[in-house]
Amino acid sequence: MQDLKNAPIGIFDSGIGGLTVAKAVIDALPNEDIIYFGDTARVPYGIKSEETVRSYALEITHFLLKRGVKMILIACNTVSASAKEEIIQAAGDIPVLDVITAGTKNAVSLPKHNHVGVIGTLATVNSQAYSKSIHAYDPTITVTQQACPILVPLAEEGWIDNDVALQTLHHYLDHFDESGIQSLILGCTHYPLFKDIIPKVLKDGNIEIIDSAESIAESAKTKLSELGLLNESGGEFRCYVSDRPQRFHELAERFLGRSLNGVEVVSLG
Amino acid sequence: MQDLKNAPIGIFDSGIGGLTVAKAVIDALPNEDIIYFGDTARVPYGIKSEETVRSYALEITHFLLKRGVKMILIACNTVSASAKEEIIQAAGDIPVLDVITAGTKNAVSLPKHNHVGVIGTLATVNSQAYSKSIHAYDPTITVTQQACPILVPLAEEGWIDNDVALQTLHHYLDHFDESGIQSLILGCTHYPLFKDIIPKVLKDGNIEIIDSAESIAESAKTKLSELGLLNESGGEFRCYVSDRPQRFHELAERFLGRSLNGVEVVSLG
After folding, report:
1. Where along the chain is the active site annotated (chains A, B) (predicted)?
2. What are φ and ψ of residue B101, in 5° steps?
């Protein structure tokens, strides 16, 4: 048990967006060792077929399991939508949490909720994954979704609070003002970067913004605590990527919210 | 020779953006058979290492050569920048043209040119490929480059003439107004979709817009004519992709400017 306590948490994403999840986990669980895998050679997953996404996700799962992780966090919405069951099966006794379930649980637990808004990539929205997940908890909740394909490139360009970002968010979010949603789930790893500007765009100041990255970090903390597996002596962060793209460090540090050392490139598949 | 005349032209790109090149080639050479390969499973190349891009490009080159193409057009700027020499070597006697050389030749052939502007993806701009290519013709020409990472996603979202597109183009292009450029090369396969709006953003109405897709189509026509290899009885277009992404058809038809039938998914590597 002592060994498992000191084992790292595995987090993975199709690329570096999932570093917003790593950031939230480090903030919530500063004494845990973390292994992050970003599949930068094959990003983005959202435009790929479900079959392809599943085979990539299983390769990464095995990579993390070989490194002895005590828990796997699926930071990628596309993987959460298409491959969660396969990963749970592959992981055996190791608990697997995913951003979609975490964000959903957070939304449905808010009081007097009957209408939830969700923004995500085209792939996440088309998969209906958030609708299905929310309706599994409460089929009476109305879900209004909006795909926001421009937000990921804006986040990567660092345009997170300029006129283009504002105008883009107005295009995507203005219809929510009349819709009566009580919460808005940020259903993409990149979107936490817009968390400060979104409330300025939404006219209805009562809409609760649900950050899936924070939600899954809280779920992980609760789960590890339940299992008696909280680490008290760790705090190391290791980052593996399948390719080292241009601007990698600049982007990674923006998403992670701190400096990043010791990135290793590994080949999968 | 008759056989080679009737052989198809091979065109390839990292994804579907190169269909703007296919469109220009169909317009310029309506009687040619064309085989297009879009590496949709592994797009985008621009964020990948040069080594990875080279190995992908060679796989596609061999795919096209096996199908008996009489000419290869590299529609992808990233491949043109990193793998042109390797492809020329692999292709042997089959002529290879690339978008960077074609756009460059077009720019430097304009009268009294001493300052050229280039817009492209971050990878293309960082590679300095257009600067090198222009300076190989005339080292006295000043080249001013601008990376425009948001334009590809805007083109894919279909936001090619709305307020966000205008504002984004102002961010990227306004500095060209004072720069004294005489031409602006659209150094990315997606950018021809903004060809109508860019002159509205540029205050200097004398700046010549150079569309690399049209440039390479003209180069291909000239080359085939020189070699006596113009086809007079073809006109078939076949499209191969390595994955069938979501919205594929909608996007492909927007870029190709016509309807698209008979797309085949093939696995490389």
Report:
1. 76, 188
2. -60, -40
Nearest-Å Rg of the Cα atoms of chain A is: 18
Backbone angles phi and psi of A257, in degrees to 5: 70, 20
Q: What whole-number distance in Å separates Cα of residue B266 and Cα of residue B41?
A: 10
- Total number of domains constituting chain A: 2
pLDDT digits (tens, 9 = 90+) for B73-105: 999 999 999 999 999 999 999 999 999 999 999
From B163's Cα to the closest Cα of chain A, the distance in A is 8
Q: Are A105 and A206 in a shared domain?
A: yes
CA distance A103 to A213: 8
Contacts with B207 (C-beta within 8 Å, 6 or more apart), sequence order? B117, B176, B181, B182, B183, B184, B199
B130/B255 same-domain check: no
**Cβ(B215)–Cβ(B106) below 8 Å:** yes
Sequence-ordered list of residues with C-beta below 8 angstroms from that of A2, at least 6 positions apart, any chain: none
Answer for the pair A160, A194: CB distance below 8 angstroms, yes or no: yes
Same domain, A139 and A191: yes
pLDDT in tens, A150-188: 999 999 999 999 999 999 999 999 999 989 999 999 999
Question: Are A92 and A70 members of one domain?
Answer: yes
- The answer to whether ipTM exceeds 0.85 is no
pLDDT confidence of residue B118 = 97
In three-state secondary structure terms, B211 is strand
Residues of chain A contacting B, Cβ within 8 Å: 40-43, 46-49, 52, 122-123, 126, 149-150, 152-154, 156-157, 159, 162-164, 167-168, 171, 243-247
Single-letter amino acid code for the residue at A80: S
The Cα A213–Cα A98 span in angstroms is 10
Q: Which amino acid is at B150?
A: I
Residues B73 and B158 in one domain: no
The type of residue at A46 is G
pLDDT category at B2 given cuts 50, 70, 90 is low
> Are residues B205 and B256 located together in one domain of the fold?
no
Catalytic status, residue A148 = no
Annotated binding site of B for substrate: 13-14, 45-46, 77-78, 189-190
* φ/ψ (deg, to 5) at B74: -85, 105
Q: Are residues B55 and B113 in the same domain?
A: no
Residue-number span of the structural domain to which B179 is assigned: 101-212
Whole-number Cα distances in Å, A237 to A5, A19, A34, A64: 16, 11, 5, 14
- Rounded CA gap, B204 and B185, in Å? 15
Q: Are residues A44 and A138 in the same domain?
A: no
Q: Hunting for tokens 């088309």 — which residue is that? A: A126
CATH of the domain at B145: 3.40.50.1860
